[in-house]
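Example A, followed by Example B.
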Amino acid sequence: MNQGDDHGHDHGENPGGNHRMSHGGNHRENHGEDHRESRRVNHRMDRGGNVRVNQGTEHVNRMDAIRGGSRPVDHNARSIAALAANPACDRRAVLDAAGIDKDRTVAHLGYASRFGQSPFAITRTQEFKSIVKAHGGAHVLRLLREVLGLAVEEAGYHDAADVGGDSGHGVRHRHTAAVLNAAAQDPADAATLIDHPLLKLGVAGYDVYLEPDVIAFQAARRFHVVAIKSFAIIDGQADTGKVSAAAREAAVYVHAMRDLFARLGLDPERVSHDVVLICPKDFTNFPTACLLDVRLQLEALRRQLERLTRIDTILDRLPPDLSLDLCLDGDTPTRPVSELTAAVSAIPARYAPECLAACEMAYFCREEARACGSLEAIGRSVRDDLGGVDSVRTAIELIGGASPPPEEHAAIAERLRFVRRIFDEVVA
C-alpha cells in the first residue's frame, strides 16, 4: 500500500503515535521525525582524508579555510534530508558543505545539541544489525522471500567495502559501481545481496559520499534498498515518527542508487521505490520486515535538492575571511565564544520552529531569531500570512493602530485588528 504524505513533524511531539502495518507488512501512513538513527555519510573526502568538492580548487580551499584545523565530520542521510527540507538556509548549507562539526560548534556556543542516541541504544542497534547480517545475510534472504514473494532459495553475498588495502572513498565508490553493474547485467539474473555500498550524491553543487548501513538486493531484475532499524514492530505497529524518518532516509539512498544507475547507462527504474524495512519483532531481537513505498519522499527530495542554492554562490556572498575554526586544543575548543558567535551569525539562516526537529543548530538560531524579533521564530505559516511584515514589533504596531499603516500593510493591519477584536471579546 502506498505511503501517506510526510509532513515532517517531530516524533517527540507525538509521543503516543504508533504506525499500523498491514497484514502484508506494508507501510500505511507516516508522520514524524526520528532523531536517533545514525547513518554514516562520508562527506567529500579523498583517500587521504581531504575534503573535495566538484567546484574547483578555489572553493575547496575556501571550505578548508572556513573549517580550520578540524577534520571534516561524517554526515548521515538525515542531515541531507534536513538540508533539503530547508533549501533557503545558507547556514545549514555552508556548515554541511564544509564538514563542520555542528554538535561541537553549538555546544561551544552554549546551546548543546539535543540529538543522538544513548550508549544503550547504539549498542542495541549494532547488535541487531549484526544479527540481521550474520551468515551472509540469511535473515535478510528469508525476509525478502516473505515480503517480496520471491522463490529465491539462495543468493550471492558481496561486501562492497572489501576493496583490499585501499579504502579511499573514490576507490570504494568505483568498486560499488562495478559490483552493481555486474549484478544488473548478470545474464543468469542470479539473486545478489550487496552489503556496504558506497554511493555518491550531488548536493548543492558538491559531492556527498553516502555509506548507508543497508543492503542492496537484486533479484528478478529489480534492486531493493534494505534498511535495518532497531525500533520494534509490536503487534503489527511501529512508531509513526520513526517509520517516517526511516522512509525519508531510505529515499536518499534510493535516489543516490538511481543516480548511479543513470550514470552507468542502466534504467534507474530498476531500483525499486519499495524499500524493505527490517526491525525487531515485538520485544525480541528476531527480525521482521515490511515494505515502505517511498515515492512521495523521492519526489519531495528531488524537488528540494533542485531548489538548493549552489554552494559557490553562497560562498561568494560571505565575508572573505570567514572562519568557523574552533581552535581545538586536543578535544577542547579554545576560540572565544563571542568570535565564534559573530562568525556563525555572518551566515544567513532561515529558522523556523520545524528546525528544532531536524537541525543541531536550531536552538542557537531560535535565540538569534527571537533577539531580532523575526516572525520566523513564531512559524513559517505566520510569516507567510503576514507577508511583507518583517518583524514582530512591526506586527504589534499594526495591531495597536496608533498611526495609519503604510499602504502596503493596510490589508494586513485590518486583518490583525479584526483578530484582536475577536480575541478581546473572547477573553472579556
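Example B, a separate protein, is given below in the same form.
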Amino acid sequence: MSQKRKKWKLPGSAESENEAAEDGATSNGSENGGKVAQVVPNMPCEEGEKKKKMKIDTGAADNWAFLYAQRLALKQKLPLHVCFCLVPKFLDATIRHFGFMLRGLKDVAEVLVDVDKQEYGARTIRKKIHDRLAEFLTEFPPVIKHPHPAAFQAKPIDWDACYASLQVDRSVKEVAWAKPGTAAGLMVLEEFIKERLKFFGTDRNNPNRAALSNLSPWFHFGQISVQRAILEVRKHRSRYKESVEGFIEEAVVRRELADNFCYYNQNYDKVEGCMWSICGIHDQGWAERAVFGKIRYMNYAGCKRKFDVGQFERKYSPRKFAQ
C-alpha cells in the first residue's frame, strides 16, 4: 500500500505490523520526548476497539494522532475505527468551506513548546521554539494497512446525503483552483518550493507577486501537515535562507503564538480576547491617537511604500483604474 511521490513517500509503507507498532516516534509520551499530550482524560472506549475521532487533522498522512491511535490498537491487537462527526452548520462557514472539507474526507491540540504561561509576543516565544525545533521537527513514521479487522462492516457513506444535510450559505461557491485532499495539497507544496519559495522572503507581503505557498486551505482542514511542509521547505535552506526562515516564522512561530494565546487566555474567543490578540500579541500597540487609539492602521501612503498599489487596483478593476 505504498504511495510514492517525486520527493517523498507518503505514509502507508511499513513492511509489517511490528515495524509500525515498535516505531519509537509513535510510542507513548514517556518514550518520545513529550510528543503525546492527553487532552481529554479517561476518554471512554468500548471493549474490543480503538476509536480515532477526526476533527482538526482529517487525513491519515502525516497525522501524529492517527499514528498514535494505530499504535495503541496494534499493541492491543484491536480493530481501529475512524469517526468524523459532520454537523449541518458551523458558525458562518459556507459551502466553500464544507465542500472542501467533505471532498478531502473522500481522500482519506497540542502546544509545541512546554511553557506554563501566556506569551506576550513572538519575541518571547521565538527562541523557545527554535531551541526545541529539532526535537519536534522529525520525520513521520509510516501508517500500515491495519491487520485487525472490525467485528462489523461499516455502512457505505452517502456523500450526496451529506451535502444535502448542510444548512449553509451556498451562494459563496467552491473555488476551482484548490483541489481538496492530501495528494493535491502535496502537489501545491511541491509547486511552491519549485516556483515561489525563492520569492517568499522578500515578497510575501506584496500582493502583486506570486510568492505565497497557497497552502492555507489544506492546513486549515488538516489535509496536509504543517510539519510536512516545514520538513520539505527546510531542505532548501542553503539556497533560499531568508525565505525558509520566513516560512518557519509564519508557519511555526506565529502559529504557535496563536495556539499559546488560545490555550492560556480564557477570553480568546471573546471581543476583549480578539482585541488583545490584535493589539498586543501579533502586533504591538502604538501611541494613543484620536479615532484610531493604539491600533496600528495601514494608510494609503504606507501601502504605496510597500507595493505598487496602482498595479494591484488595476488587477481587480481594470476599467476603473485604466489610467
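On Example B: The two ends are 58 Å apart (CA to CA).
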